[in-house]
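ok so heres the complex, four chains, lmk if somethin looks off
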Amino acid sequence: MSVVRKGAPHRAPRLSDETFAADAAREEVRDRILIGDCIEQLASLPAQSVDMVFADPPYNLQLQGELRRPDDSRVDAVDDAWDQFESFAAYDAFTRGWLEGVKRVMKPNATIWVIGSYHNIFRVGALMQDLGFWILNDVVWRKANPMPNFRGRRFTNAHETMIWAARDPGVKGYQFNYEMLKGGNEDVQVRSDWLFPICTGAERLKDEDGRKLHPTQKPEALLARVMLSASKPGDVVLDPFLGSGTSAAVAKRLRRHFIGIERDEGYAAAAAARIEAVEPLPEIALQAPPSAREAPRVAFSALVDSGLVTPGVELTDAKGNVRAVVRADGTIALVNNATLSVGSIHRMGALAQGAEACNGWTFWHVEQEGRRHPIDVLRARLRAEMGVRSE
Amino acid sequence: MSVVRKGAPHRAPRLSDETFAADAAREEVRDRILIGDCIEQLASLPAQSVDMVFADPPYNLQLQGELRRPDDSRVDAVDDAWDQFESFAAYDAFTRGWLEGVKRVMKPNATIWVIGSYHNIFRVGALMQDLGFWILNDVVWRKANPMPNFRGRRFTNAHETMIWAARDPGVKGYQFNYEMLKGGNEDVQVRSDWLFPICTGAERLKDEDGRKLHPTQKPEALLARVMLSASKPGDVVLDPFLGSGTSAAVAKRLRRHFIGIERDEGYAAAAAARIEAVEPLPEIALQAPPSAREAPRVAFSALVDSGLVTPGVELTDAKGNVRAVVRADGTIALVNNATLSVGSIHRMGALAQGAEACNGWTFWHVEQEGRRHPIDVLRARLRAEMGVRSE
DNA sequence: CCAGAAGATGAATCGTTTA
DNA sequence: ATAAACGATTCATCTTCTG
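and the predicted structre for the whole thing:
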């Protein structure tokens, strides 16, 4: 892992890693930390070159003084210079600048995640809409162990908000691993509120004095959920505010490429060491389960051709009330109100139900060995026989 | 309850209610629905006259077409004219207008709650900051039963966001019933993420055809938590987008005054009838919060929030000799030797027995269907209802 | 009358491929 | 480009129906 210094953003050689096969032109800006101003460094990247963006920008916290716990110990709050802005206008100008820079380097189907708190997320979200990003979800990170409100004057600030957005309105082809997420969630689709502990313990980077190295280090589990949701192995994930390098470390572990931008050389060095120590997961641990959407299309006529369905066989609905006959050309014949209709399994299914549309694969059934199966079962069998796998 | 028509915003007499003692000048604009444009009606109200604001403005949804469920039924989405705006700029102008109008009528110590989704909440929040409101928290309403994502293209949109803000930076004296909230929450301070079901069933107002009267009616439990958090009995709560009247109904039940603005006469009429039917809770259920020492130790308030126990209901011991009344904040009120005491179910149980300690869950009983059950039965039922996935 | 099945529904920015 | 065809996709809760 190489750290690239200001003024030479794409000169340093990349880490060798045989598992990352890629074309030489793009390799140059992969798996690097670029040190310098975020907006300048973004300008050095080629347009439409990244698949996903994760951004954890300064929150513009406006703390009025120091905060003490009930036991009089001092809370080590974020009071770094990089988190201070003169005004909302200054913060907006900064935000607009990096968002524009990021948008340029996103591929058309790329998506962006931005995390923030109530101090900044409303401004960020409004600017994202103004710049033409298309919000897909706002996702709430519910902290399992948030810092309490010591003064008892507000609710425990127990969550942060992530905005997930496509580069442009109308984008349909963005990566979203719906089946995989659902499979890992008791077979129920994942909601917009996620529960994770904050980053503590061994995962939290410490400096030589044992103090936390970075004030806002995010938990790896959060970043892993983000990347497993909206990217795939081999993708390039850009983080314009790399900080302690959580996103890059997770990207490497999940076999994504990363590009990190960080202006603090100390943070960048710590992140580089952290990333270097990461061992990518075995590929088998990251393969996507076959999803119906990605499976190759099989025409009903292919089932007839293959002999899995014989012309003349009767199809019924699940209850056996509606009947149709398979024809040799892969269409089916339906007698409905004494009228004979011929067409695709989908069209005839819709006709039988009086519906606009119908998935014939799940509507029609065949009787085999005394039991009724949806014809989708036969399609699955044909796919298996063909040795076809998704990807 | 009177509905005031356009052009005569403060003429109609108020509902008589001896429990609301107030000065005559302010009374004129209390407990009314003002029909007409939100910004115009706000201008008719006196400056610095309301204690809390709850606003549920149009979300500016930008739906592209109709959506159907997997069973091909049609989703009855929000497509009303009042939710349509030409552009973000038009929405921003509208938002700025009503926020300015609201700010003028807020007392210096008043706070405002605004609810929205990712479609609008970022714009609203940024404008609130621009106008000088001081955000205290963003609170996430996690929906126990959200509508699923039917296409599998995004995360289930399972929450909405509320922004809670003071009128100005530096305000210290805003109402926040910290002890009461903590006492009703296992003696742990309440977090910024709240779990409530959406509004369905008998609570949902229906039109003469049995269809939902208003597309976006909010659950009363959510409004009750808001008002119990940030107002006190006798306060004036303003809702500039009254809709079906949830905020006003809850205000009346919790013995707050309300002012509602609604431009649709049909909604206003339905809200007026709804409010008229509300019976305010016994004062004993709403009195000043108990001190920290008296705070309940368990989440009895969760039973109250869930509706399994209704404020005002009587609790007794197993034999029916000792009696106490459930309060809206999850404490109970006990009359013992002509002395009124308020506190947790455990403390009041101990007091009633003259004991050091008491398990209120087994001591106190409720009568349901002619039989007395320990409230522990209700707790078990609530736990079962919350299920395994409630995190 | 009760139990279980079946239907209804909620603030939603909710396709892809081939002709 | 536009239209047609293909075919993928839902969770919790409440109400109504059926046996």
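quick notes: Confidence is low (pLDDT under 50) at residues 6-22, 290-298, 387-391 of chain B. thats all i got rn
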